[in-house]
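Reviewers of the previous submission asked for a worked example of the structure-prediction workflow described in the proposal, so we include one complete record here. The input consisted solely of the amino acid sequence. No template or homolog information was supplied to the procedure at any stage.
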Amino acid sequence: MITRAGERVELGRYTISAGERMIYGQRVLGVVRVVDVPAGGCGRRYIVECGLTSMAELEAIVADYLEQAEIWDAVPAEPVCLLEITGLSR
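From that input alone, the workflow returned the following structure tokens.
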């Protein structure tokens, strides 16, 4: 099987009550993906963004994501968190 995935690059880390998490970027089949994974390796992984077109866009998304994690003390990509912040859970 041939994989067309580039090297995984750490873009940031954050710690919330549930533990430490890491943000990685990786090019897969020519498309840049940003993922959020538990630092310990075990647990839920989330795709944060796909298809970024510039380094400025990547940096802005990562900075905003890390800021949201700090403010909410939660994984910003987690569906429950997204429902809460958009007010759709009410």
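The beta strands are 9-16, 19-28, 31-38, 46-50. We consider this example representative of the routine output the project will generate in years two and three.
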